[in-house]
Amino acid sequence: MQQWTLECRRLGKRFGERWVFRGLELQIPTGTVLIVRGANGSGKSTLIKLVAGLLAPTEGAIQLWHNGSPVPDRTRLLGWCAADGALYRELTGYEHLRWWAQARGLPDAPDALMAHLDRFELAHRAHDWVRAYSTGMRQRLRMAIATYGDPPLLLLDEPDAGLDPSGLKLLRQVLDEQTRCGIALFATNRAECAGWGDLALELGA
Fold this sequence. Notes:
Elements: E1 4-15, E2 18-29, E3 32-37, H1 44-52, E4 59-66, E5 69-70, E6 78-82, H2 93-104, H3 110-119, H4 135-147, E7 153-157, H5 165-178, E8 183-187, E9 199-202
Parallel strand pairs: 3-8, 3-9, 6-7, 7-8
Antiparallel strand pairs: 1-2, 1-4, 4-5
């Protein structure tokens, strides 16, 4: 089994004069789901974006380790899913996933893409424009894109928003499967998801 470790050292982020958080220390090994909780504005999304490389820390550092060696560019090894993640209304679900596969150098054979969409119960709507998808279907598509290729680092920023019970069950399966190949950070305020992780981080407490 490949050994991955995500490390945050004295991590802090400030917007203007306001520190969202400061001095954050984390060490998360393979097989771990970290649940990130906190009130609106506590820094859940900020932390996920820092790890994803979408924001730069004000202080401190983030490092992904593979078998004891630092990974130069973790952004090539992560999957990211957010409730507000951009989707293109005039593309189909299949086209979204194929673009992601090609951009990351992952298998893009039609059978592989359709099988992955079927896992998220989207195969029957694979060739429909995303503008015709419900909120829950868009969330399933974001999860499908984020998990394609089994990235060792999976970042989930409130993907449970808009999911029905079937979608939540699918999300739980995604987290369970991620523990076999890497690490997951799951930001949520949903009470029933609070116990899904191995570790918990409460921001703004």
